[in-house]
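Hi D.,

Good news: the full-assembly prediction came through. Inputs first.
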Amino acid sequence: MSVDLGYDLEQLDERGRSLLFTEARTANSFADIPVSDDELQGIWDLARWSPSGANAQPLRALFIRTQDGRERLAPHMMETNGDKVLAAPALAILAYDGRFYEQFPTTFPDRAEMYFQHFSSMPEDVVKDMAEYNAALQSGVFLMAVRAQGLAAGPMGGFDRAGVDAEFFAGTTWKSHLVVTIGHPGDNPWFDRLPRVPAETALAWG
Amino acid sequence: MSVDLGYDLEQLDERGRSLLFTEARTANSFADIPVSDDELQGIWDLARWSPSGANAQPLRALFIRTQDGRERLAPHMMETNGDKVLAAPALAILAYDGRFYEQFPTTFPDRAEMYFQHFSSMPEDVVKDMAEYNAALQSGVFLMAVRAQGLAAGPMGGFDRAGVDAEFFAGTTWKSHLVVTIGHPGDNPWFDRLPRVPAETALAWG
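Then the structure:
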């Protein structure tokens, strides 16, 4: 089911604001409740609507919910992140596809040829930067989608990207950039919230 | 008001899913309704809760709602994006602060000294990449926060970053990376939605 919003938009209600923004946080422990493939697919069914530059959608996700997958991933994590991987009911390894421009016949049919020429002839490091930037923006939306599914997300950037890519993405054009634990919160799951940069530092007005 | 979620999380309801994900899109036109400073501050009051690596929160925002601001920004936009800037009730120039590590006494008090040493001694390009990656992830959350405020967001990466930085951020450590139009949707505001990368291309399972 979807709701036609017409021209009028409304504000998200307080429960939604708490769930996604004001009370949301990384879970410190997960309940012993499996995360189903339907739940993981449901995260993607929301996250895939994220905007991205030229609608290029470079974000890719490998969902891991097997013990074998956890054990292959854990050694590439920094410090205590390996334990978090082993204890997570499910995980997503978020990647970007450096060949996102091959998807333009699907993602931007009217400009597919123009965009393919434009991006496929760019220097490789420029294409990589664009792919990673847009995948990071989509990853922010992905984390909100995990929360919208009623699940807790634990994003971790501290891992050996090259090691993960060799382990999981050899022979593909996917490059890892974020690992996310996913599950139902367990006992005493929440750390105190860390402070935010004050508005007078983070904002300017013009 | 905030709602204590306790240990139990619930799914976002259908109205919230439509507003933020499944029916949300970039507005093609804006109504002649001003966006108040309170509304813009309200966006930030949600967006600031985004997760970020080491809680570093490198995202910064310059909110523009004056004609002078629009006219200073428009010449730096590519192609038709300049017209979009001039027609927008309000805008945000999203930036990252390359000196985010100076905020650790606020953002991570228990590890402030360790993190400051760690990040301030990194090569400049590594620090820049980390700042831009995390600011991009926070920008995804920022766009969802615009929608949660009942406003439409139009993100644009097509502009001359160096020109914008010289115009607005000279003498600071802020670097622009995204321009976002913000307003109430106008007449006939929605383009047809562009297709998404199919799940069989975007997802893998392990």
